[in-house]
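Request: Not sure, any thoughts?
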Amino acid sequence: MKLLTSNQFNKLVKNFKEQDGNKSFNAVVKLFNPSGIGTWYLSELNPDTNVAFGLAILHEKELGSISIDELQEFKGNFGLGIERDRYFPENKYSLEDCKSL
């Protein structure tokens, strides 16, 4: 499965281009590690660097930059990679809301 659909990719890039340092966008996509810890809620994506902005939940909940390339290369237990939550409602939750999901 691709990590991002073309619609999600386009929305993330649109949010990135509209960012002026003062805007806060809702989560467009949720990614997760099916065989261990790790959940990522992404709201923006720089198409030149393939680095997203969002909430990463590993040992702690942190807002920051997330490399899509690194997530795509990751293989966890049983060789499973990072997956996209196909049922996550796009643009429904703020990144702050995602901290309590």
